[in-house]
Amino acid sequence: MSRFILAEDQLPTAWFNVLPRLESPMEPPLHPGTREPIGPDDLTPLFPMALIAQEVSTDPWIDIPGEVLDILKLWRPTPLVRAERLEAALGTPARIYFKDESVSPAGSHKPNTAVPQAFYNKAEGVTRLTTETGAGQWGTALSFATSQYDMECKVYMVRASYDQKPYRKIMMEVWGGEVVPSPVDEPDHPGSLGAAISDAVRDAVGRDDTHYALGSVLNHVLLHQTVIGLEARDQLKLAGESHPDVVIAPCGGGSNLGGLAFPFVPDEGVRLVAVEPASCPTLTEGRFEYDFGDTAGMTPLLPMYTLGHDFVPPSIHAGGLRYHGDSPIISKLVKDGRMEAIAYPQGKVFEAALQFARSEGKVPAPEAAHGIAKVIDEALAAKESGEERVILFNYCGHGHLDLAAYDDYLHGRLIDA
Amino acid sequence: MSRFILAEDQLPTAWFNVLPRLESPMEPPLHPGTREPIGPDDLTPLFPMALIAQEVSTDPWIDIPGEVLDILKLWRPTPLVRAERLEAALGTPARIYFKDESVSPAGSHKPNTAVPQAFYNKAEGVTRLTTETGAGQWGTALSFATSQYDMECKVYMVRASYDQKPYRKIMMEVWGGEVVPSPVDEPDHPGSLGAAISDAVRDAVGRDDTHYALGSVLNHVLLHQTVIGLEARDQLKLAGESHPDVVIAPCGGGSNLGGLAFPFVPDEGVRLVAVEPASCPTLTEGRFEYDFGDTAGMTPLLPMYTLGHDFVPPSIHAGGLRYHGDSPIISKLVKDGRMEAIAYPQGKVFEAALQFARSEGKVPAPEAAHGIAKVIDEALAAKESGEERVILFNYCGHGHLDLAAYDDYLHGRLIDA
């Protein structure tokens, strides 16, 4: 057997909260003006109370509402796949498993949190959500989720992406999302994620019917993603594995990594590995300190590894990993030594992507390929040492809308940064 | 439950041969020069003996080689999904099921035959395959399959598509396929499927190490696709359905329709429906007669519904359905009254695609959306009459590489032909 499938009624019914399982409590977010710890009231213009409560909850498990499960089950549980053809190509004794999050409607793990975020907002009477999107994965996911709850969605898309990636924009429109280039008031500016966040936040605070939604970094976002790791635990048992030796995922804001890895945090023997781009090495070369989530300094200050909120990463193809900061929980796990981090240049990443596509048949998103590059290194290390290592990684998205990046790689135009 | 999953070891191990189940024998293909029935020797320059034998076999079942199953199981069995959210949106008492063939590496049903075609060629010592591709689905599938058997693949792509659809070309290159625009000797010509077939055939007959591969129309191609219908039969039983009332699929050359429908041919109460574009109405407005498979008249004459081998269909977005002829078996089933056919304009088709995307979450290929338009009509007819109709259709491909067509539809640029 190489694919391990759970039945629909084996979908997790509660999210795994890693907060009460950490070695020590998290440091609180600070108000951008007063630099005092923020309270719930500071966040109510942007988020519904249910999400604000999840942000700080110390309950070990948080129930997933039935109305959310009804939509998640359109594609969940996702398959766990043993990459036997990749193993054979590498000649490794390692057993390699991946969680296939590319099967969601939007093609990535992002709808796992877009759906509950839309639900909780709708439940509190909000009928419209705004957000920013860079590469487009998050905007796509939120457009899908709001279409399921009959809500409006407005996506501020970084203008350079808006112009260069029309397919992502169209996909949002197929689900009824309204997409505008950002910054809205500077039509000649190429835009940035920071500016797009400012546009989306400004829109949300200005209207009673509207809230803002974020696709990574925050605790409640990573909480929603833990369905990935919970399913993977059950599926590894189906595959006859007691536990993985190493869990690997790419890391931008941290949501797909947290989703897969958090349920394994209490298992001390399991190594957890974050893979980031060498051109945006937040965890490997950043500093752990309080910093803003956005460029303009409008968001609360978060305790995290950061390259500085004014850091502008080079325009690499894994747009989802181009973030100056990182999830505070991920940052803490790395700081405490519970999680490793490694950075790769994109040439190595696309080499791994091609090897995966030609052995396993699936064309990965550049973000996912960062994880695959580390998987290959781990599998070759196991071959070297003759070890039967069990490797688990997150296939967090397909590359169907990223083929221009492959074209650059195949024809020698990729900048190997 | 809304998704019905078979285990890997429930993948069919034999293909279903509809030939011995037809009311009367098929009329033979004729030699394009002599107009006499062709024999195996006429086909050996192009195809391996195993496929030539399958083309005329009357064995009711034909074993699938283990080496083929090893690759099919990368994505098969595919899910059968009950489209409960679409049912709710339509308010229909019908129960709607779809077979999700979009989960294959190439994103459509095409690899089901690309893999065995590559295998049988390799087994007879062929190391290189040529083919033509229009929209790109078939070239993608064959590039994937040859990469799995370490064979070379050369794809002659209709020049207009080559220029307009770079993503499809890149996907073929990711799997190691070589893609060139056709016609090769007329760089200013936009090309046609007929001319591309001529290029691919000429290449294959000129080299001992090379054969040609076709992605639809022929009996052995449709045979390989019957895994779709065989799995669907088992999955409907899991869903508690004794049989479908109506089986629906889009029809270009006939391979995804044949693959889903053939296993239901012996079940007299089951209606079988082909859906084609109004702009290329082969089954609904063509004539049943002997005609060439290609524009240039190089292929054998096939007994089929045809609009004439010099018919040039308008440039609609469902490129996979733009074929002047049709599978001889499909043609015979329609002529004998065992199968219905209906044609829709693409405006109605995209309206259905959008309704599906917003209810079920998946963005269909324009080809698949032809079937969905008929599904919606059948479901609304069931609502009108208060009937509990069981509808089965083939979700034969995703629309991730067809988003430009959605853009045209959403912004009023679609020609409603």
Tags for this model:
Rossmann fold, globular, 7-stranded mixed sheet, homodimer, 38% helix, alpha/beta
List the topology elements.
2 copies of one chain form a homodimer.
Chain A: E1 3-4, E2 14-16, H1 40-43, H2 49-56, E3 61-63, H3 66-72, E4 80-82, H4 84-90, E5 95-100, H5 111-123, E6 128-133, H6 137-148, E7 152-158, H7 159-164, H8 166-174, E8 178-182, H9 193-205, E9 210-212, H10 219-224, H11 227-238, E10 246-250, H12 255-261, E11 271-277, H13 282-285, E12 287-292, E13 301-306, H14 328-335, E14 340-344, H15 346-360, H16 366-385, E15 390-395, H17 403-410
Parallel strand pairs in A: 5-15, 6-7, 6-9, 7-8, 10-11, 10-15, 11-14
Antiparallel strand pairs in A: 1-4, 2-3, 4-5, 12-13
Helix pairs in contact in A: 3-5, 4-15, 5-6, 6-8, 11-12, 15-16
Strand order of the largest sheet of chain A: 1-4-5-15-10-11-14
Number of strands of chain A: 15
**Overall body shape of chain A:** globular
Give the C-alpha Rg of chain A. 20 Å
Q: What is the average of the pLDDT values of chain A?
A: 95
Gap from first CA to last CA of chain A = 39 Å
**Multimer state:** homodimer
Helical segment tally of chain A?
A: 17
Text of the CATH class of the domain at 68-108 and 220-410 in chain A: Alpha Beta
Main sheet overview of chain A: 7 strands, mixed
Briefly note the structural class of the backbone of chain A: alpha/beta
- Tell me the fraction of residues in β-strands of chain A, as a range: 15-25%
Provide the helix percentage of chain A.
25-40%
Named at the architecture level, the CATH assignment of the domain at 68-108 and 220-410 in chain A is 3-Layer(aba) Sandwich
Low-confidence regions of chain A: none
Using the coordinates shown, work out and report the CATH topology of the domain at 68-108 and 220-410 in chain A. Answer: Rossmann fold
The chain pair with the largest interface is: A-B, 41 and 41 residues
